[in-house]
Amino acid sequence: MDLRPNYQLHFSVRRFTVVLRTIKMKLHPFLGKGRGALADQVISIDKDRYLIDGFDLGVAERTGTFVLDEGQLTLIETGPSISVPYIKRGLKSLGYSLEQVRYIIVTHIHLDHSGGLGLLLNDCPNATVYAHDKGIRHLIDPTRLIKGAKVVYGSSFDSLFSPVLPVDENRVRPAQHLGTLTIGDQSTLTFYHTPGHANHHIGIHDERKKTFFAGDTLGVIYPSLERVGIKLVLPSTSPNQFDPELMLKSKELVKSLSPKRIAFGHFGVSHDPSMVYEQLTYWLPIFLQLGESFLEKNDFEGLKEALFTKVQKELLKFADDIPEEAYRSIEVDLFVSTMGILDYLSRQKRRK
Fold this sequence. Notes:
By secondary structure, this protein is an alpha/beta fold. The protein has a single domain, classed as Ribonuclease Z/Hydroxyacylglutathione hydrolase-like (Metallo-beta-lactamase, Chain A). It has helices at 13-22, 34-41, 84-93, 111-114, 117-121, 133-140, 143-153, 157-161, 223-226, 244-256, 273-295, 300-315, 324-351, and strands spanning 42-46, 49-53, 64-68, 73-76, 101-105, 128-131, 172-174, 180-184, 187-193, 202-206, 211-215, 220-221, 233-234, 261-264, 268-270. The longest helix is centred in the last third of the chain and has 28 residues, at 324-351. The relative contact order is 0.13.
């Protein structure tokens, strides 16, 4: 796994810090917010399936941890370390102890999905971790992972992700393609390698519940838009392993499994898989075509603004009053995705 900076990303790091400050994504502690906040933090998907909001980047509905209770308590994703207190409180509110956690699965090792793993494991003595075999060594020694993330997040890194603790190698198992994990008498999860967002990405098929946990491979959804009747799925094209061809192949793999629900790392569950596939197929070429227009000058700001304008115009076809929180999340997503698009196109250009 290559975590070296690509296409001179450093010029945009300072701008990212400004973006976070501008949209007021300040970390806001959960303590002291009362029972109402706790109720909002834990979402019931159905019987024995829950989603705990981890308040990644300090905001709600950004990144979450899925809880599966089938006898062997299983978590999917941990989020960054700042999410760990929310996970603990969420589990407690559901009546679970940390000692009951048997499995923790991470779809990939980007820090917004696995950065809190080492910290959480310190309090989950009976948990075993499953991850793609290409990512395991970076969980055991996160040095290069941290270095790569600092290139993207700059001076915001510590407030967003620290600490990133190493994971005991004896507690990690590879999630092999088509491998299975039995989490209850009538419930077995199947792992699938789903590259496109990252080479070390896995998806998890919960066949009993007809749910596919897609991580970031199928994109990002926005609950604040869904509440006003707008369904939007944007590709997640962050650097530096984004590959649109592999992403579409992974989409076809998921489609072949015929799930009834798609669970997203960012954020929530879609009950309309066909819409997810259609939107990913629609937006991915647009991202790339716009990227080509700004590649020659490595115009990061130009591409980011062009992507935002295109998305905004699409949203305004459905409603005049778009929730501000949706625009905030979209701006951050497009900031990171712009990096990945230019990185991918630069790599393709060098190969010619």
